[in-house]
Specification:
heterodimer; A: mainly alpha; 62% helix; B: 203 residues; mainly alpha; Four Helix Bundle (Hemerythrin (Met), subunit A); 0% strand; elongated
């Protein structure tokens, strides 16, 4: 199948990726709290979508390929939900090595 | 390679029949690989949220260098796609230039990562401990970035092979599928880094 898309699509995609990266760093440095997490995840997903749709050509492929590509996201969201009850269930604090008992005592 | 003939798949029989079996094969592989990274990142999240003395990544890890590395991989994805576009119109010189630039981007990325690791290790970040807090901070950092770095290394070797084969005139506007497939792998590596950069360095 001949695909003769203008290369400008790639330049625009690069520009949006570049802008999103700058914004991400800005959010990381200057925003705090729950908003930070939501914004960063949203921007990361946006960048991933841009790379997948335009660089990896998914936008112009058959739908089946898109469904296949989308599957890990669904499974990962499921995975995160399944892990959520265990988050913070046990508080871990690192004990300095000097305080740990070393070796087996016979 | 007589597989060239096989790569040109049968006519589209249904919406489920892929146009290129090679492309489908690479996508299926990438989906599995995405799950490998996905579980590593999910595990990282679970461990980090259960920890009360997790160091602040933005304070301990070099965001400036990693921002540059992110930019580098994004640019290398652009050169990859331009290299593919070049061979799709039989521009062998353009193919060589852009694939070469993509490989260069990958090599510089690995160099930056080696420098970053050396700097962090000499600053005390280890696999089993660090001076700043939870010991798993270092463990998860090295495993996740190392696993990704392995993928970049593999991609550089893969692209080198594509470049060398292409320089011998194997690819053209009629046969560019192997280049496209290699490109898919490379974009995947970029995509994963976008996620790693966000979750390990920025959040």
């Amino acid at each position: 199948m001949a695909e003769h898309h203008s290369e400008s699509v790639y330049h625009w995609t690069f520009l949006y990726l570049f802008i999103l990266t700058i914004l991400e760093i800005g959010v990381a440095l200057w925003i705090h709290g729950a908003v930070k997490g939501i914004l960063l995840v949203a921007m990361a997903l946006g960048k991933a979508a841009l790379v997948a749709m335009f660089f990896m050509h998914l936008r112009f492929e058959r739908l089946t390929l898109g469904v296949i590509a989308f599957t890990p996201l669904v499974i990962c969201v499921f995975l995160v939900f399944m892990l959520t009850p265990d988050l913070g269930a046990v508080q871990h604090k690192t004990v300095a090595p000097a305080q740990q008992t070393t070796g087996a005592k016979h | 390679m007589s597989e060239v003939a096989a790569i040109h798949a049968e006519a589209n029989e249904s919406p489920l029949t892929p146009e290129s079996w090679g492309k489908l094969g690479m996508w299926v592989f990438l989906v599995g690989d995405a799950m490998s990274f996905g579980t590593l990142l999910a595990g990282y999240g679970a461990v980090r949220y259960g920890s009360i003395d997790w160091p602040v990544p933005a304070a301990r890890l070099g965001i400036n260098l990693t921002a540059f590395m992110t930019f580098l991989l994004i640019v290398s994805s652009v050169t990859m796609v331009k290299g593919l576009a070049a061979i799709q119109r039989n521009d062998l010189a353009g193919f060589k230039k852009f694939i070469g630039l993509t490989i260069l981007g990958g090599v510089i990325f690995l160099g930056c990562q080696a420098y970053e690791w050396t700097h962090l290790i000499s600053g005390g970040l280890g696999f089993t401990g660090n001076p700043w807090g939870a010991s798993l901070f270092g463990t998860t950092f090295f495993i996740i970035t190392g696993f990704h770095g392995m993928h970049v290394t593999g991609g550089v070797i893969y692209l080198l092979c594509i470049l060398l084969i292409g320089m011998r005139g194997a690819f053209s506007s009629q046969n560019y599928s192997p280049v496209e497939i290699a490109g898919l792998y490379w974009h995947f590596v970029d995509l994963v880094w976008i996620m790693v950069f966000t979750f390990v360095y920025l959040l």
